[in-house]
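Dear support,

I submitted the protein below through the web form. The confirmation email said the job was done, but the results page showed an empty box. After a refresh the structure appeared. I'm attaching both so you can tell me whether what I see now is the final result or a partial one.
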Amino acid sequence: MNFSREFKQKYLLALSAMLCGLVGCSSSDDKVIAHYVKSPEIKDGKLIDYRDGNEYGVALIGNLYWMTDNLRYADSTSTPNLKGNSWCYENDSKECEKHGRLYSWNGAMDIEENDEWNQYSSSYQGICPEGWHIPSSQEWNSLSSYVDANNGDEGVGTSLKSVEGWDKSDSAATSTNRFGFNATASGRRNND
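What the results page shows now:
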């Protein structure tokens, strides 16, 4: 399957809007790592990313762990594909602290510009911390199905959205963050 650039951009925007909701891998993975990498750990409901010291909330929803904060990783020295492929909303570093970073497709996937998405597995680490990966379509569908089956018919988006940071609307239900996912709008960046 070959995905168009437009599809990739829309998918990346969806990833940003959904907190780059990174899914946890099982801690029982026996992967052999060619170089020493200190794996992140979860303490007091927080994932500590040892690459840069950032902490992220974590929630178990159904049978998957999800980060409840947008990723803020930006080390383009250790991860060269991030150079020129990650930004703060409105180029304001305070926005990165508050909402996480915005990533291009290649930056988020940690792939070269000419690499094709279809050569990677559905469980792809990208720029996620060791032991975590960018969620597959199946995992997004699993999250949606689980929430839909367990939220009293209030709407999946309503159940996943943070109770703060959203404009109030007469037509939109008040968000509940029922499952601790804490979805916030993180902004977007156009190609120009």
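Response: this is the final, complete result; the empty box was a page-load delay. The chain has five helices and eight strands.
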